[in-house]
């Protein structure tokens, strides 16, 4: 008799192959259309380095209007200058701390004023912060009452990775919906093309760590997992909102099928990007607990790391609601749902 683990392994591998084939097919179909997008008005938060910086270059090469935001104003100016060299139509930099709600509102208002006709097509949250030490370094010693440094680290991780993108969604979604309504009102659905090409989008970068556990990254994993819970749910709410609007249009316009088609409302596409390890970005140096790191703590090998250029290009050229990079991590997620011990063992070997 075959052992259960072998049967589970074969089933999981088959599912992985099928899912990969379907995804590759969908990807090729849309890739050409996505790469030819023009007239984009995009807001990039976390654009002073790493993936956000390179995403700015992808948009710049297509002649987009770009708002670059982050805290380091000097780095933003450098990215702006390169964007203009690459062909961006216009670039505005807005010094922004993502954890400050008033600053996020200011970013929205400055963006609306900056873009011709005030419409925003895409908002991408690229900001993020890592932790690199085992949770043990944050434990209160017996009798210790004021471990403020540990409190600050925990709060900072969740403020930047989890709370800020939720506030960002609160503040920018109405503006993105206004763009969707404008597109719906001024274009005929039969000439629009697929939703991911024409619909405005709100994209947040989480991490594979939001889907899979990693030792010494407990705060990072948990704060990134929160993004998945929130944005996956928000996507369903947004799709249901548009389905209800469509129904309302049916009532008013059912006598005129052509008009109904022409006015079909559009959802805002809510996207999550979950990359594995990326080399050559500032993420490790700026870890919330970098000052507590000691020799002997787990490290992850950077050998198989992706480049920020590659991740930015894939983000631009792919249209999935949840984009996992590299794609094979979906297999690890699937296997973990049936054999968690196997993936946890591999994670403990990866971070050693
Ligand atoms: N590197 C990896 O291995 C990896 C793997 C998976 C996922 N990710 C995720 O990918 C995203 C981009 O990371 P990266 O690797 O490109 O790192 P990075 O080079 O450190 O970029 C992070 C960006 O976030 C900005 N940022 C940080 N805190 C901010 C705040 N409070 N307000 C506004 N902006 C803030 C930084 O700009 P300022 O400092 O100028 O504000 C910077 O532009 C992050 O969400 C990260 O978690 C990275």
From TrEMBL:
Keyword terms: Membrane, NADP, Oxidoreductase, Transmembrane, Transmembrane helix
Record-linked Pfam families: adh_short
GO cellular component: cytosol
The UniProt record lists the keyword Cytoplasm: no
MF terms (GO), sorted A to Z: oxidoreductase activity
Gene3D superfamilies: NAD(P)-binding Rossmann-like Domain
PROSITE patterns: ADH_SHORT
Transmembrane segments: 6-26
Assigned protein family: Belongs to the short-chain dehydrogenases/reductases (SDR) family.
Protein name: Uncharacterized protein
Organism: Allomyces macrogynus (strain ATCC 38327) (Allomyces javanicus var. macrogynus)
